[in-house]
Design goal:
By secondary structure, the chain is α+β, with helices and mostly antiparallel strands. It has 4 domains: 29 residues; 52 residues; 53 residues, no CATH class; 105 residues, Chitinase A, domain 3 (Roll). It contains 12 helices and 4 strands; from the N terminus they run H-H-H-H-H-H-H-E-H-H-E-H-H-E-E-H. Strands 2-1-4-3 form a 4-stranded antiparallel beta sheet, sandwiched between helices. A hairpin with a 3-residue loop joins strand 3 and strand 4. Helix 3 crosses helix 4, helix 6 crosses helix 12 and helix 10 crosses helix 11. 12% of the residues are buried.
Length: 287
């Protein structure tokens, strides 16, 4: 009697109906989770990540050219990866995994970078940026020259490297075929240097030679000069061009300034976007 009365209660009907709806929803949700839907867009995305070639148009062309066997193989590979991914989620393998955490952080940083896409800079902003960072665009002193090298370690001649260099220079400047009379030695770097800065010359020849060639030589493409000693031996040089360090005009480096300015603005906007996200959370230190 009491059971019959209880069954007639509206609250019991409501709870029973709720339980049925919950059971149906869980059953449908479970079925959906166990169903891998393979569509064209999914395969195109899979192909682009698989080959690390993110060109949707090209991927679509490649997909259309696949034979039935190749397409089925692609579908099988996609299905396998999706099944493994879903099973890993069921097993909560994504929880407390620092690699996955780091990847999600990277995705958020990419999103913040996309949000921070700046509009084209104003001309006055570029000018102001150039003036503020003018030292970064200063062009170093450079030199263009050829050289002949005479090693201290050459044992084929009774003359010293210095003497061989002087003799070769005298014969070359006198238009005598001196390079056959006195052979130069094999140099470990280059014979010719075109518009190279002091830093590179110093790296190849050492400080003594670098200071001499920049301070003591003159531009003269007709005559050899020297000899000058380096960390490797002795050299005679023919200088074709030299330019002192200079600060270029804005228009000369406008393209580089624009690129640097946009990069700076994007980084600034990205940091602001990330700070906005961080400010949504409260920090509690429990050491």
């Amino acid at each position: 009697m009491m059971i019959t009365k209880l069954i007639r209660q509206p609250l019991v009907h409501f709870l029973f109906l709720g339980a049925v709806i919950y059971w149906l929803f869980e059953d449908i949700s479970a079925q959906q989770q166990d169903t891998i839907v393979i569509d064209k867009q999914g395969l195109l995305t899979f192909m682009q990540y698989r080959y690390q070639a993110f060109e949707p148009g090209q991927a679509e062309q490649n997909l259309s050219k696949l034979s039935a066997t190749q397409k089925q193989q692609l579908i099988d590979e996609y299905t396998q990866q999706e099944a493994l991914y879903r099973q890993a989620l069921k097993m909560n393998l994504d929880k407390n995994d620092y690699i996955i955490k780091k990847r999600l952080i990277q995705k958020m940083e990419f999103i913040a970078e996309d949000i921070s896409a700046s509009s084209p800079p104003e001309p006055q902003s570029l000018q102001a940026y150039f003036i503020e960072h003018q030292d970064e665009y200063r062009q170093p002193e450079f030199i263009t020259f050829s050289h002949q090298y005479f090693s201290d370690k050459n044992t084929r001649s009774s003359l010293s490297a210095d003497a061989r260099a002087q003799q070769a220079m005298a014969m070359l400047n006198a238009k005598v075929n001196g390079h056959k009379a006195i052979e130069q030695d094999l140099f470990m770097y280059n014979r010719h240097y075109a518009e190279r800065p002091k830093s590179l010359i110093m790296n190849h020849f050492g400080p003594l030679f670098t200071e001499q060639i920049f301070a003591q030589t003159i531009v003269d493409d007709a005559n050899w000069q020297g000899p000058y000693q380096s960390a490797h031996g002795w050299h005679i040089v023919k200088v074709f061009k030299r330019q002192a360090a200079r600060s270029p005009e804005f228009n000369e480096v406008k393209a580089q300034v624009t690129e640097d300015f946009i990069r700076q603005q994007k980084n600034k906007d990205k940091r602001a976007a990330i700070n906005d996200i961080v400010e949504q959370f409260h920090t509690k230190v429990d050491l």
